[in-house]
């Protein structure tokens, strides 16, 4: 047993709200039952089968209000895996549900039997015809695909608000549209072709000229059945007219019956049916989109109206003027948005009925934008707008930052409102459409209906297309509250259909939420055609039963999840999944959302339950140890939930008093620790030069087993040698800034075999060269940014070092009169922000006077204008660190690199390397997983320079790519050297 095991029971919830009515039963604690587990492991390989209770629970929730526990999770790598699972399911009479990002809002990504993860191994974009088309794999996010297209001046048609996280497979399967897609730019209209796997395992590529011939040979009954349904529909003029009318407005309720009218052959019909089929007819393995021009000339305004109906009445005017987007946000939405970074604080004081329209015009050139501005001014002149708070301008702007802020507030609708809901309540997102000309009337009716049922919902949506969303919160643990919701849903669906002939689901797709109301909207004849379609394509009902079609009138009330209260930092989470693509451990263990989902299930359980014990047993490694602690989840989350901070708190809870005291002593005596660390690195360097790395790897491996893997780093061959014993000489007199070499750069040297100056020497030289000399204080040794302790949750040591560095910096900078330049981005972040909660009141006041500047920012803004670039490299690839994202100085890294290289590339998949100081040595598998996609981009071609801004991140990227990364400031020094 390791000498320093974590404190037993430290992660056990301090207060448990359970047992909840939807808690998992004790029998679930054993995970996947036999023989399901062993049969799938034998069929696919054990590494593709997730069967533990922790695995099943983390996949049981998505962004919807539902929760269903799968029996097993399969991580499919390719079409062969998908076909094998489908074949197995047929033979064993089992059910299969596909899940990618899990951002759908109606339970489409949840299954009760075999759940197949088709995100992890399914990312990739191939730009075709200079951007006119794009071949995209289903696990690729919309943001990632658009990033590849942007270089060609093109963009995808669908633009859902969840673009940062949702994947193209789900976008097509739900026919998701978004702010601008409407009925003309959605997946159905812009999809060129797709490749899919039918429930039988047959693979169809609709772009293949022989596709129909091959399908007829492989699936004669299916082809015959589809053509029979087509004949029946076309023989019924009333039904044809009904189908065409239903798609004049946005509609994703049920199957796309117009596929039978638009397609002439079985393959063409299936191509249309797959769009919006929610994984019930097949697996979408690849899509090819026709792209659209990326109009970059924008003018936008956020306009405030006294009420929801008056705002809705203005929508047609902007539509006629040519606005591409007209987005509506009601008072509840606007007030909740103050939790979003950058939103004016005075929105919290907006009157209840206030409603805003976000209006945007996009043009390909300046002349087009000017014309749109003229039209917008004419519309504005006839509107009665209000200015209830000081930040409201009611004016159109071209400023990119302002426009970005407007859209950030709008896209945060679900998460911001969800985060502001009462703790413990479940969030329901509804999505409907009416003819745009009747939007104002529909808004009035909706408000009346909400009041009648005791709801005060938040409303927002794509007003230009008559499509609104509203959010309801209720307590799913209280039967009376569930019945109140049920009564509202019955009344709302009747209102939408019978009064407005609207769509019950405009873009979120049917899902479990609206399946019981399908016939209400479409009528019995059309609904029967949908049931027949399902039976023709999936006669054994293998794929996603009950997700789109369900005759149970109360199916939408089954599986509603309770939301037990968890730690305060995570409690606002609505499980939307926006955090997941940025998480370094996403493909290794758990994501921020899953860490919270697991915590909530613990809270549902009774103390001592086998499910609780099983979850706790896995949580230490799966959630706490393999969290990089980079907190980029906070940046991705619209309401700033910092799951990284929660994991650091859990690390603190697991420390014994002896560990905390040892860490505090290390901080108190850090001068000696620093010297010892540098000497140890130097000694290790000599050992490896003599006998190689194997001895050190064996020694550290044994120590990790004896002490604890999360405390003893593993020796990695990429660890650099020791830094020089002395820092470069500088003078205080005449210094333009105080230069603080981070302890990592005082302990570790630069890349092995590199000639030229060290990083401290380079910073001093290039600053002197620019006429902005820096001074290194003589007593920097023994100080640190405190990140070493902060990242591991050692609070006592963190307090010691945080206060020491602030007091020292105050003296060095003459009370903040000089800036403090820090040469490692994580250390800049630590001193500038992360130390603050641990400071005494006096030192917090001192800290407020300090100017902490990252060395990259110093170089870009203070040095570059005064430097002469004498030589450049041909190409450079950058690794922006996660700390740079927090500091918002990625642009400065690019500026420095562009001064030094003719071509600068930031990989599309650049993200946190997860080396996180020493976490990449504690858990090398974390960095390997986190960097896999970025490394694939980097190694796909040659670069002359590999640049970053943090020594340990550079080590992590060295390990990931086999290339030598170094500070951009070293390259700047070389480029400007006389």
Question: In brief, what are we looking at here?
Answer:
The protein is an alpha/beta fold and 978 residues long. Helix content is 44%, strand content 12%.
List keywords for this structure.
single chain, alpha/beta, five-stranded antiparallel beta sheet, 41 helices, 44% helix
Write a structural description.
The chain is of the alpha/beta class. 44% of the residues lie in helices and 12% in strands. It has 41 helices and 25 strands. The chain has a six-stranded antiparallel β-sheet, with helices on both faces. A five-stranded antiparallel β-sheet has the order 5-6-10-8-9. It has a four-stranded mixed β-sheet with strand order 1-2-4-3. The protein is globular and about 90 Å long.
Query: Sheet bearing the most strands, described?
Result: 6 strands, antiparallel
Distance, first to last CA: 59 Å
Helix content: 40-55%
Mean pLDDT: 94
Strand arrangement in the largest pleated sheet: 12-14-13-16-17-15
Total E-strand runs:
25
C-alpha Rg (nearest Å)? 29 Å
